Amino acid sequence: MAMDVSDVKKKISYSAMQPTGLPHLGNYLGALKNWVSLQDEYRCIYCIANLHSITVRQDPVNLRKRTRDLFMLYLAMGIDPKRSLLYFQSAVPPHAELAWILNCYTYMGELGRMTQYKDKSQKHSDNINAGLFSYPVLMSADILLYSSDVVPIGEDQRQHLEICRDIASRFNNIYGDVFVVPEAYIGKIAARVMGLQEPEKKMSKSDGDNENNLVYLLDKPEVIISKFKRAVTDSGNEIKYAPDKPGISNLLSIYCAVTGEKPEAAESKFAGKGYGDFKLIVGETVAESVRPIQQKFNELSKNKDYVDALIRSNTEQTNALAQRMLTKVKKKVGFPIV
């Protein structure tokens, strides 16, 4: 049931996502769909980053449920436990322990320049905590614990990977070649999915107060279709990509990302159709595309023993891998190994 780690010819890819909300269509088409295909090329490690989640106040019951739901959703999307390692960050203590050590090799000025820290501090001005400030150090520990060769990232995470590389290089310059210095993985161009109500902005979990702006992977088919019917369109009646038609362009992008069709073919297909018919077809297409994921998720939800056993076995395997690197680091900095 555990990942086969014997294939040392394959490089290691490390990916993580917080369980602060279940993935939406933008997450799936923009990143997660590519994560599944990475398994063909890399030994993949997938982290459910719930330690990161508590830099913002969470409801404990919801966080616990979403953490488990995200584990099952990964499996439902196609993460293969025989080829990849999927685990809860909070169940692997070496993450926090290595983060403390790396904090001592990270400079305040570096952390103060992090764009995400500045953004989140503005959004959560009543809770600017130390964890929010040192968030990139924990992220660095996540990556470096497993000698990750590549990290699939979006543009908004490039700064965090750069500080991870800086920390790793600084540590290596002092103690020798301890850490692999990871590279950014730039895969095939992923879909950039915008909000259904605000097509000028990326679809985002932070827009959860406007439920019609985003489509969750576990939304019921009728809910998905309803959200697309309400999607913002543009003036005129042509269905085409154009800078002055952000609403229609976004819907065409989603349709092409789901079906694999070329934009020109999609434009021809919908030529002469009204916006109402177009939005209905896109909604039905999206609902049908996520149906297998939802079915698998529901099956896993009913198979508690299997999921529990997989969580336990993956936790054991992940701790063994992480402890190996942590022990190496402890020896380097002069801690007794007991």
Report on this model:
- It is a single chain.
- 54% of the residues lie in helices and 7% in strands.
- With 338 residues, the protein is mainly alpha-helical.
- The protein folds into 2 domains: 12-190 and 304-333, HUPs (Rossmann fold, 3-Layer(aba) Sandwich), CATH 3.40.50.620; 205-297, Orthogonal Bundle (Tyrosyl-Transfer RNA Synthetase).
- The strands form 2 sheets. The protein has a 3-stranded parallel beta sheet.
- α10 (246-259) crosses α12.
- The two termini are 31 Å apart.
Write the layout of secondary structure elements.
Elements: E1 12-17, H1 25-38, E2 43-48, H2 50-53, H3 60-77, E3 84-88, H4 94-103, H5 108-112, H6 115-123, H7 130-144, E4 150-152, H8 158-175, E5 183-185, H9 221-229, H10 246-259, H11 263-269, H12 275-302, H13 304-333
Parallel strand pairs: 1-2, 2-3, 4-5
Helix pairs in contact: 3-12, 4-7, 4-13, 7-8, 9-12, 10-12
Supply database-style keywords.
338 residues; 7% strand; 3-stranded parallel β-sheet; two-stranded parallel ribbon; mainly alpha; 13 helices; globular; Tyrosyl-Transfer RNA Synthetase
